[in-house]
Amino acid sequence: MILRSSPASPFARKVIIAAHHLALLDRLQILPADTRDPADSLRSQNPLGKIPVLVLDDGRALYDSRVILDYLDDLAGGGRIIPRGPERFDALTRQAAADGVMDAALLQIYEHRFRGAERRDADWLAYQAEKVARGLEFFQAAGDRPSDRVDVGDIAQACMLGYLDFRFDGTWRKEHAGLVGWLDRFAHSVPGFAATAPG
Amino acid sequence: MILRSSPASPFARKVIIAAHHLALLDRLQILPADTRDPADSLRSQNPLGKIPVLVLDDGRALYDSRVILDYLDDLAGGGRIIPRGPERFDALTRQAAADGVMDAALLQIYEHRFRGAERRDADWLAYQAEKVARGLEFFQAAGDRPSDRVDVGDIAQACMLGYLDFRFDGTWRKEHAGLVGWLDRFAHSVPGFAATAPG
């Protein structure tokens, strides 16, 4: 299988960490994609022009990261990183929260990358930054789960914090000691996290 | 259960159509939410401040629309709108494609709603519009599926087209006759679609 990816993408990182964790990494051929290049085959694989995309051996393309994680979980037997019991919707909601924080963080980066300074909007940037701040409070308040089984919510949460380290100088660390400890423990038990550090 | 919603949201529309289709609508109490109002309880239910959110009777809040559709499918016995067989990842990828088109359409609306004319960026608007255009080509090329079972991909596709009707004057109809016919057939077989038309 081919994974269209980029080292800086927190969503692609979710996929690689999941593949690591499920012992499926050797099944993935990682092929970088340039989301800004119209000539890149990415747009024929995913009309949204976004990464990650997983191209199966029969040519079918799966996206986005959540769908790919679901596929990898299924390939590994099912119920591994997406719980089947009552914790299922808690795990999926934590994944959605972390994905949403990453979207809000990316929109701040895009505000700088895509447009000149005179077209940046302070209110829009603040609106997105507040989503990130509330998301961090949500995860901090949630604390550690009783289970030590890694799920899609944990993987997304770790990629979210890693992205804030990468693009926002890790300023979240100052006021979220609980999350700093959480991420240290996650990184210790999931080697794929350190192996995929961006930059 | 309480659904935090808004009549104009294509993502909330997915949830209501799914509840309709699964005969779960009478279990939902629909409570409007104002995503721009910091005093709305929405932000305590979903730190991202986005709709839809499903608040369960025990107080747990589930989001986003994909997670809620998964929950409703489970509540209806499972395997109803999210296939369990080999079609599963096709359905989930079509849902992701349609959700992504809706995100790109919403970002164009927000570009006008959130900022003054002097801070709008034509290149950014074009970048998002191209995602919508490629998404429409993708669905047009895919054509009708052999199965007549409604899945999450169909529901998202219909909400995507409905949103383009609502906010972009239905200009997609001119060059996508195949999709016009598809949407007519969907609306005919899924009464929840007409029942949730915005505006």
> Could you give a short account of the major beta sheet of chain A?
4 strands, mixed
Total separate domains of chain A:
2
Helix content of chain A: 40-55%
CATH domain class name of the largest domain in chain A: Mainly Alpha
The termini of chain A sit apart by 25 Å
Main structural class of chain A: alpha+beta
Largest interface: A-B, 42 and 42 residues
Computed Rg of chain A: 17 Å
Overall residue-averaged pLDDT value of chain A: 96
**In what range is the share of β-strand residues of chain A?**
5-15%
List the helices and strands and how they pair.
The structure is a homodimer of 199-residue chains.
Chain A: E1 2-5, H1 10-21, E2 29-32, H2 42-45, E3 53-55, E4 61-62, H3 65-75, H4 88-113, H5 122-142, H6 152-167, H7 177-189, H8 191-195
Helix pairs in contact in A: 1-3, 1-6, 4-5, 4-6
